[in-house]
Amino acid sequence: MRIQVILCGLGLGVGLVAGGCKPDGSQDTDPGTSEDDETGTCTPGAEGCLCGEDASCEPGLLCASNTCIPEDGVTTTSGTTPPGTASSETSGESSSPTETGGDSTGGTDTGGTECDPDMGLINPGCPDPMAPYCEAGGTCVGCEALTCSDVSTATPTCDLATGYCEQCTATDVAACVGTTPVCDVAASKCIGCSDHVDCKDSACQFDTGACYATALYVDRGADCANADGSAELPYCEIADAAAKLGAEPTAILVKPSPQPYTEQVQIATGRTVGIVRNGSGTVKLEVATFDAINISDGATVQVSALQISKGDVTKGLFCSGAKVSIDHTQIIDRTGLGIEGITCDLTLRDSRVWRNIAGGIKVNGGTLRLENTYVVTNGGSFSAVSGLLISNAATVDAVYTTIADNDGTNTVADSIECTAAGAVKLRNSIVFGKTPDGSVDCAGATATTSVIDSAMLTGEGNVMQAALDASWFVAPEAGNFAIKVGPPFKDVAIWIAGDPSQDYDGNMRPTRDGKKDYAGADRPN
Predict the structure, then answer these.
(1) Per-residue confidence (pLDDT) for residue 434, from 0 to 100
(2) pLDDT at 468
(3) CA dihedral 310, 312, 313, 315 (to 10 degrees)
(4) Do 121 and 139 touch, CB atoms closer than 8 A?
(5) 158 near 144, Cβ under 8 Å?
(6) Which of 222, 248, 250, 493 has CB atoms 3.0–4.6 Å from 517's, for a disulfide?
(7) Mean predicted lDDT score pLDDT of the chain
């Protein structure tokens, strides 16, 4: 072959050891039978075998990546020389290990790996964020090339946009269950629900972050002949759904209606339920001769976005030994008492207790938590309960709350009356009775960073005002105690971590530790 002759003539010795060239530089035309044929083994220098000493191969073969291959199997481009050879067109000199200072392999190994799989899937040898994992063959790959649950059971989902395995994505939320049913897409993490819209065909348990396991539907205007509580055949009364509650946490989804729901809602012992408005409009619960909602021992109940109104001398809501959370709800315009709890854990958020003639809230033991809530214009000159009546070691923790314009008999304080109460603490709040001297009767009660009328509330950062001025509020005569811009409520409150991030109307609060804010349930619009 002409190329072999040329190479031999140049003294490159490509086939010197294997017999391709004679020591005098002439071509050996009879290389003989290969040792591979004789022994059945792969002889160094033979086709497909390792190169021989000094990168040598049999005639017609070249050494590439330490393997002997046919000369016509090596593709060269301008400026590129096949491994183990020198270009006769670009150089008249031989390239030997001595001249290059290299090793005796005659070429560069191009088959190396990118990463060491022994160092794990998450590998320091894979810096590219789109290919951060080292697969078994030593190649850096993105999550699409893996089973993400093999990387970690905590990140079972592949995010094609980033190449990483994550807990969840916008299109894959299978891992988001229990108390973390929602995917925070920006963080690719499962989190608790914070709004009812987070729970499809259900509702959010704000205290736990979980969605209710099942749902029953209620529609005042439905044909109830064959009602079963499904979305297609809803019950006509909230009471009907409550009577069907089982052991599973259940959302009762109530459709707003021009007509009120009129039957007493009884929640049995140990039940976990959310009574939640389903849609826009007002859900009115108007029960004439019984407490509108009656909650038994051991129950956990959430009341969300209802209006509990009218009725006679009965209560809007009564609980005994239960945990009750009330949000975005109006308990208003009743002849009887707004709320009574006996050893209950009661929480009101973003709610209003207004114009209940027998008084606002009465708690006997247990706890009361108020956030962004109004307790206003309750009671009357003959009422034994005015705004709040706290007894039997019950505790009160009120933040961003407005307690104003309540009234009671001469023996009852207008805003807060205590009898052997536990700790009563108010912060970032507003407290005004009919008169400063008759506003608060509660030994040991404290208020901080609030606007108040009573010296009985001790604490730092308060602004004292002798009497309520109706011009500070939007329309107090109609129950609208939203405050106006400016003093005396501006920059009195101080927001701290854990406080509500929004006010009664959903407007943002400062949400920075130590930032000054308006006192009361609502910032000026």
Answers:
(1) 94
(2) 94
(3) -40
(4) no
(5) yes
(6) 493
(7) 87
